[in-house]
Amino acid sequence: MRRLAQLADPYIALLLGTVLLAVFLPADGRVATGLGWGTKAAVGLIFFLYGARLSTRQTLEGARQWRLQLLVVLCTFAAFPLIGLATRALVPHVLTPGLQAGLLFLCLVPSTVQSSIAFTSVARGNVPAAICAGTCSSLLGMVATPLLAAWFIGGQAALSVDGLVGIVCQLLAPFAAGQLLRRWIGGFLTRHHGVLGFVDRGAVLLVVYAAFSQGMTEGIWGRVTPLRLLALVGVEGALLALMFTVTWFGSRRLGFVRADRVVAVFAGSNKSLAAGLPMASVLFGAHASLAVLPLMLYHQMQLIVCAFLARRWAGGGKDVPAAGAGGRGGDRTGERDRTAARSG
Length: 344
Fold this sequence. Notes:
The chain is an all-alpha fold. The chain has helices at 2-7, 10-24, 29-53, 56-62, 66-86, 97-108, 114-122, 127-152, 161-191, 193-217, 226-253, 258-269, 273-284, 288-313, 329-340. Helix 6 (97-108) packs across helix 14 (288-313), helix 11 (226-253) crosses helix 14 (288-313) and helix 13 (273-284) runs antiparallel to helix 14 (288-313). It is globular and about 55 Å long. The protein starts with a helix and ends with a helix.
């Protein structure tokens, strides 16, 4: 029971509660209009804070292991998308076109920053490399994810003029502003990371409520059956297992030490809920609820499995350096990292 309690994430319960609220009390009329503007502001705030937290110095420290970073990038933006495209064979017998589009979008989202770092720390892996992997994936995803979504998904995520303006104004500009201001506000954000975490999560909940409310008013959920959702869970479980296998044995084949293989597994198989949800709201509009559902399910699945693996690997392997560069510093940050993993 204790282990089950450790795996439980209260934030996931809040996400599910937000979905149920949108199902039974969707926003419409003037409320929906105001919520739309509020969502745009929330998305901008998320990416501003996202940019302000990413450390260029820590990224450069981890970039020395370029082969590891290249492996993570290839897994995130090459292997995942190819697998996502292959799932088109599951339509219409296993997945609906809408759910498959959401699954493909999941495969295009960048890797996590917080979660991959936290799990790497717990498993006594190479934390600087994990920081670099998550940061590089996020930076690349700012451009790659919208372009790949427009290319592979087409109609629902097409890059119209309005879509390009939305990406620039709601994603790229706030992110760049956060990076530029990091020098002056980085210390403040670090000291108040706990409070700002609530701001982050509250903004994501607002995005979820807006997306599912619009889905309800558009009648999208009438086309999704419980059997289809169960099939989606099965497909995502197979996807996660496949990426764990590819990253673990692929990194071993390349001769990486165990500490770096831990990074490859966590950074190469995880997908960012914090980045993916706001992107979906900008790219998919009225179809965002179906687009984000696969990502939300996958996120919870990866948290449970990665938490189990991180604890299992915590004491294994003599070639694994202590998290964070060889001392007990990783132990002091371990608890904070485990908390941060829940918002990745």
